[in-house]
Amino acid sequence: MVCVAVGGILLGGCSSIDQSQIATSALAPGKARIVLQRTNETLHATTPATAKVNGTKVADVAVGSSTAIDVVPGPLTLSVESWSYPGAYTIPLEARAGETLKVEIAPRPSKTAGVLGPIGGFMDKDENGNGGAFTVRPVANLDASAVQVPAATPAVTQ
Fold first, then answer.
1. How many domains does the chain have?
2. How does pLDDT run across 51-102, given as a tens digit for each residue?
3. Strand partners, 59
4. Which structural domain range is residue 31 located in?
């Protein structure tokens, strides 16, 4: 799959790679790779996890599956959301040329949505303002170097 054309400017021609191709496809010079791996849990299993890089959709990841995207190196934001649940979970990442970063997507249980339904989903946010049906976290750098997660940018107050 090729990313949405609008994302070409932001992502510099990112592409998505099937799980069977991850180990065998060469990383293009000057690119970084992010492997998105979704857990095999039943919560939210019927809806795909929509992954976005810098606000541009790059993949829909089904329960128990993986996909890889090639991106231009540098700081970026990775967010995951679902069409069936309000909110998104967003993290900053630092993609380095020639490196592959593995990220896990897992269901995000909600106490308020269980009681208040969709209204509870809108209210349900963590300490960083993240919500949505899923969580996302870097789990490994497949090139055996340290995972780079930039510190959150402090809010600017006037």
1. 1
2. 999 999 999 999 999 999 999 999 999 999 998 888 899 999 999 999 999 9
3. 51
4. 7-141
User: Which domain CATH number covers 104?
Assistant: 2.60.40.2890
> Is residue 115, in this structure, part of any structural domain at all?
yes
Please state the pTM of the whole predicted model.
0.68
- Residue 119: strand, helix, or coil: helix
* CB-facing half-sphere around the CA of 16: CA atoms within 13 A: 20
* CA distance linking residue 83 with residue 66, whole number of Å: 19
SS3 state of residue 33: strand
Residues whose CB is less than 8 angstroms from the CB of residue 141 and which lie 6 or more positions away in sequence, other chains included: 99, 100, 101, 102, 147, 148
Nearest Cα neighbor of 50 from 92, 105, 12 is: 105
- Dihedral angle of Cα 49, 52, 53, 59, to the nearest 10 degrees: 60
**74/148 Cα distance (integer angstroms):** 11
| Spatial contact of 83 and 121, defined as CB atoms under 8 Å apart | no
Kindly state the tokens that stand for 153: 């940018």
